[in-house]
Design brief:
The chain has 143 residues and is mainly alpha-helical. The chain is built from nine helices and two strands, in the order αααααααββαα. Helices cover 73% and strands 6% of the residues. The longest helix is centred in the N-terminal third of the chain and has 26 residues, at 26-51.
């Protein structure tokens, strides 16, 4: 194979790889990274619960200490989809009442938090992706 042909082949492979990342559907990414996403959300919810009620009920603290850091540790293909497309902030904000149990100043994570997180994603991700998510999600089996 000539140098020029090798160069063309390499360029085509690079183009295909970058195109496939850019065109990943939410359902495809969820199928591959759903467990990781659920674990990340659960981990940051648990950390927030340990910090106490102010870190759950105050929007600014919740965003700065939970929503933003959880986004930053997600796998790159998930972040490439974009926060807006994933409704990331909205899912976290809606999740407060479903994931946390608040009694007075005490905060705990609901015993069925993983299933509830999965349900939040299924209910708030773009509707065209729901069949793929329902079929591929293994987060619900993680309990």
């Amino acid at each position: 194979m000539s140098f020029l042909n090798k160069l063309k082949t390499a360029a085509n492979q690079t183009k295909l790889a970058s195109t496939s990342l850019a065109t990943n559907s939410v359902g495809t990414v969820w199928g591959k990274y759903g467990d990781s996403i659920c674990e990340t959300v659960l981990r940051y919810a648990t950390l927030a619960a340990k910090k106490g009620k102010p870190f759950i009920v105050d929007d600014a603290k919740y965003k700065a200490n939970v929503i933003d850091p959880a986004w930053e540790v997600l796998p790159t293909p998930v972040r490439l989809l974009g926060r807006d497309r994933l409704n990331w902030d909205a899912i976290f904000l809606a999740g407060r009442s479903k994931v946390f149990l608040i009694e007075g100043e005490d905060v705990t994570v609901h015993p069925e938090a993983k299933q509830r997180i999965n349900n939040l994603f299924a209910g708030m991700l773009p509707k065209e992706q729901l069949p793929a998510i329902a079929a591929e999600s293994s987060c619900e089996d993680a309990n």
